[in-house]
Design a protein that fits this description.
Layout lengths: L1 H24 L3 H42 L5 H9 L6 H18 L9 H22 L4 H14 L3 H14 L4 H13 L57
């Protein structure tokens, strides 16, 4: 009984203390309200806003840069994007697109710069495409089938036809219902019956011997008259009647 009364007394004392402070602060309620608002605003500016800019803000910026890079027909804007945003959400797609463009440039035989070796450039392009496709295949499950098709195309560009065909068949078997399987099937059909022809540096036809001047309708030598190809009819001999012309 005594403990209960003691607890009640303590509760009453706490309530009285709170009431007294409320009465003291009531004349300053507006000032305290503005102060609390300032504190909340400072917390937002210094703690919440930097996290937003570092998260969603950075993703928005990288998405904008990626959209500009993918709109270009050249490969360099995508390279620059990957150098700047290697860990962005758009990075796997950018790697796949860049690999496709580099492989397309290699297949089209884009000329190397002045003084550069075309064969060395082609090998560099194929190595870059292989590295990009491999990274996508190893890190992105959703884009792995298309990356595997790209790796098969690199093998074909290198002239390794059997390995390239086998790689395309693996894609068809492993992901039969995917877009990559459709693409692999199209490449296999295009390769059906294809065999590389042996290279020969012999000309297809022997070059004709150049004609001497004045021979066979060629130019006449200086001081030499060229016989006309056609001339007037020969004069009839003495005592010979000319043949009558046929009437039209």
């Amino acid at each position: 009984m005594k403990s209960k009364r003691k607890h009640d007394l303590q509760t009453n004392e706490l309530a009285d203390w709170i009431g007294r402070w409320i009465l003291r602060l009531k004349p300053h309620a507006r000032i305290l309200g503005w102060g609390a608002l300032v504190v909340l605003l400072a917390v937002f500016v210094f703690f919440v806003l930097p996290k937003i800019e570092g998260g969603y803000g950075a993703e928005a910026v990288s998405a904008a840069v990626f959209n500009r890079a993918r709109g270009s027909f050249e490969a360099e804007p995508l390279r620059e994007f990957l150098r700047t945003y290697p860990d962005s959400l758009q990075a796997p797609t950018a790697r796949l697109m860049l690999a496709d463009r580099v492989l397309r440039e290699s297949a089209a035989g884009i000329a190397a710069g002045e003084g550069a070796d075309p064969q060395a450039k082609r090998e560099k392009q194929l190595a870059e495409a292989r590295d990009l496709y491999t990274k996508v295949a190893e890190t992105d499950d959703a884009r792995r089938p298309m990356a595997r098709v790209g790796l098969a195309m690199v093998l074909l560009e290198e002239g390794r036809l059997d390995e390239g065909r086998a790689a395309l068949e693996e894609v068809r078997k492993e992901w039969p219902q995917s877009v990559a399987a459709v693409k692999a099937k199209a490449h296999l059909e295009a390769l059906a019956g294809y065999e590389p022809s042996a290279f020969s540096d012999e000309p297809l036809e022997k070059p004709e011997k150049p004609k001497e001047p004045g021979e066979g309708g060629g130019e006449a030598k200086p001081g030499e008259l060229k016989a006309p190809e056609t001339g007037p009819p020969a004069e009839p001999k003495s005592g010979q009647m000319p043949e009558p012309k046929a009437e039209k």
